Amino acid sequence: MDQKVECTWVDNLVFDANLDGHHVIMDASPEVGGEDKGARPKPLLLASLAGCTGIDVVSILKKMRVDFEGFRMEVTANLTEEHPKIYDKMLVTYYFKGKNLPMDKLEKAVQLSEEKYCGVSAMLKKAGLIEYKIIIE
């Protein structure tokens, strides 16, 4: 199935991306002539990775009947110096809050997302290394 995103120039370096009726404004940093009116495109890739794997992990943990009080992710990436600048190494850190969380099930959910379900992860792995870490807070 094909997917389509419409991206329209607004002004200067500002673009409005329409993703199934949800708008995301993108802009460049002031250092390169932008006006900081929206997110930068490359960090949106990292947000997509977090969203994709996060949806997987929550869905899998629900099926495993693992109850948690909180869940967040942090994605850090190394941006290469040479053009085109790409992320060659990424680290996804999963932070869980809760009592008596079963680490084996958390690890299994993350592993299934990483190796089987998350299409964003599969695409980004072709560009660089992705590592994962789990922390229970």
TrEMBL record:
InterPro entries: KH_dom-like_a/b, OsmC/Ohr_fam, OsmC/Ohrsf. Signal peptide: none annotated. SUPFAM superfamilies: OsmC-like (SSF82784). It comes from the Bacteria. Gene3D superfamilies: 3.30.300.20. PANTHER family: PROTEIN YHFA. This is Putative redox protein. It comes from Tindallia californiensis.
